[in-house]
User: Which sequence fits this backbone?
């Protein structure tokens, strides 16, 4: 029997009672840590295996392909982002932001944000994680050498968003557009910062993981009252809000 157990957002104490029961009964436990990081010391974990390691366990993979299993759900950033005070039913499509390189600056996320903005909806932006990555040179030479882990920050995301807008020039958002930066959602040192994209491009939010929410124009006054408390500068926040935010219904 194969179970996929959601561990939660922060540390090992976030696991559900049902999930913990399954883990205790399991003969072998693996942690998939490729798409996220766990804010807990490795000593507290039973076994850690990166995604590539699991793929190498061919016998196990073949068994998993035919075995019945179950998914034990838990909190994720998709629900945890409610900590921002923004109403979850006011969110549109979620997008991902990858690290730009000199020759690769994908902007497909921009079109989805454009759709969300046209409907007045918020956009959750998930930020890139680079773990177990190899340089082009090491891959070409067949050297199993990995680059240091990199985790995109809110500041990097905001800067890249503005860079894309400058390139596309469709007016989907701009330096004065309001957004919420969220760091370490669900952890004891969770941090929220609210400001314009220009402000967030300069903000320091500490250790990963980070996420960003671009506000939709239909943002409700109740949402405003909450997020304003985390504003970089309340006067700037108020001025930006007056330019076009607020529920229309």
Assistant:
């Amino acid at each position: 029997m194969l179970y996929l157990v959601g561990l939660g957002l922060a540390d090992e104490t976030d696991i559900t009672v049902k999930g913990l029961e399954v883990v205790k009964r399991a003969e072998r436990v693996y942690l998939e840590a490729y798409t996220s990081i766990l804010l807990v010391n490795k000593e507290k974990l039973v076994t850690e295996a990166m995604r590539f390691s699991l793929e190498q366990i061919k016998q196990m993979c073949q068994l998993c392909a035919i075995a019945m299993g179950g998914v034990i759900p838990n909190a994720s950033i998709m629900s945890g982002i409610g900590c921002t005070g923004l109403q979850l039913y006011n969110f549109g499509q979620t997008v991902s932001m990858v690290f730009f390189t000199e020759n690769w600056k994908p902007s497909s996320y921009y079109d989805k944000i454009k759709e969300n903005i046209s409907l007045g909806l918020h956009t959750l932006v998930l930020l890139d994680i680079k773990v177990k990555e190899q340089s082009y040179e090491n891959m070409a030479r067949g050297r199993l050498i990995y680059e240091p882990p990199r985790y995109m920050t809110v500041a990097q995301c905001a800067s890249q968003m503005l860079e894309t807008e400058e390139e596309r020039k469709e007016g989907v958002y701009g330096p004065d557009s309001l957004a919420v930066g969220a760091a370490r959602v669900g952890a004891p040192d969770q941090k929220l910062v609210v400001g314009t994209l220009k402000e967030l491009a300069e903000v320091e939010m500490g250790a990963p993981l980070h996420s960003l929410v671009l506000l939709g124009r239909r943002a409700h006054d109740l949402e405003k009252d909450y997020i304003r408390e985390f504003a970089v500068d309340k006067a700037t926040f108020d001025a930006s809000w007056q330019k076009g935010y607020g529920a229309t219904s």
In short: Confidence is low (pLDDT under 50) at residues 61-68. The two ends are 50 Å apart (CA to CA). The domain at 78-242 is CATH 3.30.950.10 (Methyltransferase, Cobalt-precorrin-4 Transmethylase; Domain 2). The longest helix spans residues 154-168.
